[in-house]
Amino acid sequence: MDLREKLNILGDAAKYDVSCSSSGSSRCAPKGGFGSGCDAGICHTWAADGRCISLLKVLFSNACKYDCAYCVNRRSNDIPRATFTPKELIDLTMEFYRRNYIEGLFLSSAVVGSPDNTMELLVRVAKELRIVHHFGGYIHLKAIPGASARLLFEAGLYADRSSVNIEIPSDSALQYLAPEKNYESIYRPMNYLAERKIGYDSDHARHSPKFLPAGQSTQMIVGASGETDLQILRLSAGFYQQQQMKRVYFSGYVPINADKRLPAISSKPPLLREHRLYQADWLMRFYNFRHDEILDESNPNLDVDLDPKAMWALRHPEFFPVDLQTADYESILRVPGIGVKSARLIVSGRRFSRIRLETLKKMGVVLKRAKYFIYHPDTPASLRRLYPEMVRPFLVAKKRPEQLGLFDNFVPALPGALSR
Amino acid sequence: MLVIHYDSTFDGFLSVVFEIYRQHLDVGDIVPVRPYGAAQSVPTDLFLQPFRVESDEESARRLRRAILNLAGEDVFAVLDAAFRSEEPGVEMKIFAYLRKLFAGDVPAYARNPTSEEMLPLFCIARSVRREQGFMLGAVRFCKAPDGMYIAAVEPKYNVVDLLAPHFRSRFPNGRWAIVDMVRRYGICYENSRTQLVSVADPAAIAGIERADSVARMWKSYYDSMAIKERLNPELLRRCLPVRYWKHLPERQVDASSLVIGGRNSEKRGDNGLGGANLPSAVAQGRSLALPHNGM
Question: DSSP letters along B66-134, please?
Fold first, then answer.
């Protein structure tokens, strides 16, 4: 099997892993080598499905011994199997990196032999890149559930970010769909790495080595089992607080395996739901929302027609209208249509001049949404209260007009004549 | 009323503003004379009198110091970034801002990012910086036969020389060059020195782009990364606008497949330089290079 074929198989096998970021590490190029980290992360290209590609995302091997229902690489699937040698993978990474195709390597693997065995292979590649080739680019290593602490620790020394996927948002569903996995085995490496990282972060000595400078991330599959959005957000809020995760990714379930336990193979991936979850995730990370503000037991799911911020705003009419001249930054941030950049601009600009509607427009604020939630001198007195039921129709995206088919309503004169 | 022509550099523009103040000129418009493209022919205005101002380092430095003293580095960086957009009329917008800044009528004018003159410049600068960040990822090097890594780019704004620090710290021991195919200049890094070079023959570089086997491997990897069930051409175009595809090997269509056809395959045809020409073509491009600014 030639290298190109291997790359295609193992790239194809890794594509369902959604983690793509290359942020959080500002490593300098090592002496005698090349490669550096960019703190903000750099997207290098976008695949035809619109997802960004910034790392060379491959599996080391896809010959898995597990049989998880949702996974394309499970033991019972009949697919071509391949395994890299460390040298092939290292050369490939360096050649791609040199040409600025990628920001670094994202290395994961199916479980070959034992978890320790697999983890050892991954760590070996990272170690060789860093120590033999003086590679300073970004390395994201998967932590294999069940791997020993020694290997996890070593992975933390060479990688910029590590991740263990939680896969399914509830323990019982996970054990149902992936008989060889459970939450305990997934949480253990996660917690171990989080604890070690906290230990290293509090050590400010100049020469102490870096330990996972870009932290940890995880991913869960949405729509394969019956969890509500509230459960998913609560779980991810827990990850952000307890494990100090940098990112929690959601992956709308793409039906790849015909399995009784999963949605039918003809079902579409829940892309809109995934999008809404990401929006809610953004609210938690950048807009100071708590997960129980976005959803609660009485509304356990996100609104499909409205983004979560507008949904929250309509549920809290007492919070609005916000006066842009006097309100604090956090309240301005809660206005639908105003983002982080605009909110900062408003706060720094209002000390010098009044913020008017046309100023907002020039800043790039989405007035179409924001105008219902802000107070400004031009608002007539009668409209200074928010009536959610009146505003909602204006916020819901209108369906695009569709071209009507000529024969959509066609009723044949003789019923059944056509089919005969 | 005058229409002032200058050499399209930022120093040239600062000299123009300096001269406007020194000679009390009555300005109607400021128009750059670019050394490339359609703008080469200077448009004449029926009612404005043409006036040429030469770039002068000394006056540019004095004006720069004045701006830094009054408004600080952040504002100066915004003006510089806005100027790089090369949008028609951006010179007059910057000039309007400077005039109000130097007049000193409004207290704390320099610190207000939402003033009538600053906000448009701020927004232009924001999109220039966005493209600068985008280009960090969209530069694609290819290995020339002499071991140099060369990239051709066509950014919308004039941001190529801003990319130098990033790539210098990333590839400190390599030899590489990034060439702006439209503006016909590039940055070249060799022996730990970065130089601005002007490029005589951009077509020579386009030839090297084809001859890289790693690029083909990258393309096939790229193709296998897309999840078929989630194809989303609209999102792809929003994230990766079509105007950048020309220099991305992964977005090139192979001659055999006719998925997108037309534009890209034509480009392939006229750039079909033979592999044998390449070393000489590169050497030629570099020997004609005029280092005009140590960086």
Answer: HHHHHH-HHHHHHHHHHHHT--TTHHHHHHHHHHHHHH--STTGGG-TTSTTHHHHHHHHHHHHHHHHH
Q: Is the pLDDT assigned to residue B273 strictly greater than 60?
A: no
Q: Taking CB atoms and an 8 Å limit, are B222 and A53 in contact across chains?
A: yes
* 8 Å CB contact of A4 and B170: no
Sign of CA dihedral A72, A187, A240, A192: negative
How many CB atoms lie under 10 A from the CB of residue B41?
A: 8
Q: Which of residues 319-378 of A touch B (CB under 8 A)?
A: 345-346, 348-353, 355, 359, 362-364
* pLDDT of A270 strictly over 80: yes
A·B CB contacts under 8 A: 160
Reported ipTM: the value is 0.89
Cβ-in-10-Å burial (0-12, 13-18, 19+) of A317 comes to middle
> What is the bridge-based pairing of β-strands B2-6 and A138-142?
unpaired
Q: What is the largest CA-CA distance in chain A?
A: 87
B224–A12 CB contact, under 8 Å: yes
pLDDT in tens, A134-152: 999 999 999 999 999 999 9
pLDDT value of position B48: 87
Domain boundaries, chain A: 3-262, 308-395
CB proximity A266 to B under 8 Å:
no
Report, as an integer, the average pLDDT of B203-212.
Answer: 71
Question: Which one of B171, B214, B235 has the shortest CB-CB distance to A34?
Answer: B171
Task: Please list, residue by residue across B264-292, b when 16 or more beta carbons sit within 10 angstroms of its beta carbon and e when fewer do.
Answer: beeebeeeebeeeebeebbeebbeebeee
How far is the C-alpha of A215 from the C-alpha of A89, rounded, in Å? 24
Q: Whole-angstrom Cα distance, residue A151 to residue A156?
A: 9
| CB-based burial label for A143 (10 Å; 0-12, 13-18, 19+) | buried
Cβ contacts of A356-364, under 8 Å, gap ≥ 24: A359/B114, A359/B119, A360/A324, A362/B119, A362/B120, A362/B123, A363/B114, A363/B119, A363/B123, A364/B123
CATH code of the domain made up of A3-262: 3.20.20.70
Chain A CA closest to residue B106? A352
> From B220, which residue of chain A is nearest by alpha-carbon distance?
A8
Which chain A positions have a beta carbon within 8 Å of B138's beta carbon?
44-45
B218, B234, B251, B259, best to mutate vs chain A, most A CBs in 10 Å = B218
Per-residue pLDDT averaged across A124-134, rounded?
A: 95
Which residues lie closer than 8 Å to B52 by C-beta, 6 or more apart?
B4, B5, B6
From chain A, pick out residues whose CB is under 8 angstroms from the CB of B71: none
Quick check: pTM over 0.90?
no
Chain B within 8 Å of A57 (Cβ-Cβ)? yes
